[in-house]
């Protein structure tokens, strides 16, 4: 089975721009979660989507949003980028809700905001 | 809400040394507990898990026991190798990860 894939792997943007990241979960997995990883803050939960609905949300501003499609693929959007948004964004999929299951992580998208 | 406290790093050990990385959590109920590992340049991957009290998860020589009475899930390995150098994350199943502990093993 193919693993979780994320595109693009690397991205460079400037302040004020917006960005969309994509995640394809493992086939058959219905939950997709997004995390932000930075050296200072560690791994922080952004949100989880399950069957095209946002089920859980972390403590991030409304500039961070996401969606899930009927094939379980998910996108995350960040608008009005700030320097502090530079981070590794990880996507993880689970067969069912992440709260009860092991998560399978993708390699991440490295976002640099200049 | 639930939270997890993980031993701060970085931790530097010599090959074949004994490893312990402490992890304690607060939770409502009895969540499953996981240790994930992140090798350089990669995403996280599951190292081991335990789903109920007194369960012992084990993989690749690593072990962790679900201690309900102390709400702990400490990671241990009897003899580390250079290839174990990575960042280790403790996580209950509510998407809250520990801060991560960077382990460096020197030959």
Taking pLDDT < 50 over at least 5 consecutive residues as the criterion, the unreliable ranges of chain A are none
**Number of DSSP-assigned strands of chain B:** 11
Mean pLDDT of chain B, as a whole number? 91
The number of helical segments of chain A is 0
Overall shape of chain A: globular
Structural overview:
- The complex is a heterodimer of chains A (114) and B (107).
- Chain A is mainly beta and 114 residues long.
- Chain A has strands at 5-7, 10-13, 19-24, 31-38, 42-50, 53-57, 64-68, 74-78, 87-94, 104-105, 109-113.
- In chain A, strands 2, 4, 5, 6, 9, 10 and 11 form a seven-stranded mixed sheet that branches. A four-stranded antiparallel sheet of chain A has the order 1-3-8-7, with no helix packed on it.
- The termini of chain A are far apart.
- Chain B has 107 residues and is mainly β.
- In chain B, 0% of the residues lie in helices and 49% in strands.
- Chain B starts with a strand and ends with a strand.
- The mean pLDDT of chain B is 91.
- The chains are: A mainly beta (114), B mainly beta (107).
- Chains A and B meet through strand 5 and strand 10 of A and strand 6 of B.
Question: Quick recap of the structure?
Answer:
The complex is a heterodimer of chains A (114) and B (107). By secondary structure, chain A is mainly β. Helices cover 0% and strands 53% of the residues of chain A.
Question: Layout of helices and strands, plus pairs?
Answer:
The complex is a heterodimer of chains A (114) and B (107).
Chain A: E1 5-7, E2 10-13, E3 19-24, E4 31-38, E5 42-50, E6 53-57, E7 64-68, E8 74-78, E9 87-94, E10 104-105, E11 109-113
Chain B: E1 3-6, E2 11-14, E3 19-21, E4 23-26, E5 33-38, E6 44-50, E7 56-59, E8 62-65, E9 75-77, E10 86-92, E11 101-106
Parallel strand pairs in B: 2-11
Antiparallel strand pairs in B: 1-4, 3-9, 5-6, 5-10, 7-8, 8-9, 10-11
Keywords summarizing the entry:
heterodimer; A: 114 residues; seven-stranded mixed sheet; four-stranded antiparallel sheet; B: mainly beta; five-stranded mixed sheet; 11 strands
